[in-house]
Amino acid sequence: MAPLKNILYLFDVDGTLTKSRQIIKEEVRNFLFQELSPRGAVGIVSGSDFAKVSEQMGGAEVLSQFDYVFCENGLMYYRKGELINKKDILEYMGEQKLQKVINFCLGYLSKLELPAKRGTFIEFRSGMINVSPVGRSCSQEEREQFAAYDVQHKVREAFVEALKKEFSDFALTFALGGQISIDIFPEGWDKTYCLNHVENDNFSEIHFFGDKTDLGGNDCEIYNDARTIGHKVMTPEDTIVQLKKLLSLS
């Protein structure tokens, strides 16, 4: 099959290329670089920062093999490990508004009773605020415990509704991120933001693969964007199955 370099294959990370906050499996990584890369450009888009994405992909050297790396929804744009473009939520919102959002989150979190609570409940990133009711320093077991509890009790969904009501005039988006958190960012700074960086690269098709594609999930906007062909996946294994079918390899 001749290389089709005018096609971009773009992937979410958690739940799509890896289990949530886990390292990519060797067979998934090998498929991307040995089978997929000769057929088009390969990129990833994540709400996480560069350090977390790098860790999950197996290190900066592996990450540099991707044609495109969009961290924090594309607010941090890397090519071959080099930072090309950066946008700052503090500069955009200002300290006063930012603190109002953070203070509200801290107050809301203080009233929640969960199976477990640990540390790092609010993580300030360049392009967003990440809020985790259980705390990002939780163990993998505690992460899974909260995820199951959240499915039953809709903790994050209720939190999002409270945020929307409180900050209806702030032009912010509140999206479920991964298993344990909520991403808060200005409207338009969702994962579709990364598409701005490739609009002049003349791709005939952009295929996006993600798991949080339902309304309120942080893959929803880019999955439904007219510029992409969306593929909803359930696991990293499902991602490979769908890719093989798309490429007529199975």
UniProtKB/TrEMBL annotation:
Enzyme Commission code: 5.4.2.8
Keyword DNA damage carried by entry: no
Keyword rRNA-binding: no
Domain of life: Eukaryota
GO MF terms held by the record: metal ion binding; phosphomannomutase activity
Record pathway: Nucleotide-sugar biosynthesis; GDP-alpha-D-mannose biosynthesis; alpha-D-mannose 1-phosphate from D-fructose 6-phosphate: step 2/2
InterPro entries assigned: HAD-like_sf (IPR036412), HAD-SF_hydro_IIB (IPR006379), HAD_sf (IPR023214), PMM (IPR005002), PMM_cap (IPR043169)
TM annotation in the entry: none
Catalytic activity from the UniProt record: alpha-D-mannose 1-phosphate = D-mannose 6-phosphate
Cellular compartment(s): Cytoplasm
Binding residues for alpha-D-mannose 1-phosphate: 21, 125, 136, 143, 181, 183
Keywords: Cytoplasm, Isomerase, Magnesium, Metal-binding
One GO BP: protein N-linked glycosylation
Binding residues for Mg(2+): 12, 14, 211, 223, 225, 228
Cofactor needs: Mg(2+)
GO cellular component, one term: cytosol
Active-site residue numbers: 12, 14
Function summary: Involved in the synthesis of the GDP-mannose and dolichol-phosphate-mannose required for a number of critical mannosyl transfer reactions.
Similarity-based family: Belongs to the eukaryotic PMM family.
Assembly mode: Homodimer.
UniProt name for this protein: Phosphomannomutase
Taxonomic source organism: Eumeta variegata
